[in-house]
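Let's practice the habit of predicting before peeking. Look at the sequence and jot down your guess about where helices and strands might fall. Then scroll down.
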Amino acid sequence: MSTTPASSTSDPTRSSDIETLKGLIRDVQDFPSEGILFRDITPLLADARGLALAVGLMAAPYRDQTIDVVVGAESRGFIFGTAIAHELGVGFTPIRKPGKLPGDVVTQEYELEYGKDALQIHADAIKPGQRVLIVDDLVATGGTLVACRDLVRALGADIVGITVLIELVDLDGGALLAPDTLDSVLKY
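Done guessing? Here is the structure:
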């Protein structure tokens, strides 16, 4: 289920913020393969004001909620997740590709367009009953975020919400995240 972040899109300040962020995202045709329009966030990350604005808008719906820990998936989820954790005054836990975390891990496989992949989290990273915010840069087909959600639930935690910078609405990945709340700053 997609929700609108705390500020209304009819708010002139919010509309200006959205235009600022969209102006910092570069469209790259035919990347990584022909027919794909890639939304490149590296110019936004390089712009201090744009990065702060993106983090602030992604964190905004969760400022008045109790969050115990933020999780983010490798690799762009680390960028936004750690910044949002700092913004909310909580810790950050990484979700990584297999073989990147030492110690005991919990693994979740998920489907890709052509095959399977997996994500892992430390088995002791989140305690049962903790309130977790899941962060990533983008939701497209939803597979990565569904795997993150399943890992968090496997550890017995409660998901407060999922926040992303970009939602590619035509790919409908947000629908796979229902009934959890998805907040996306930019929709394409």
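How did you do? Residues 1-9 have pLDDT under 50 and may be disordered.
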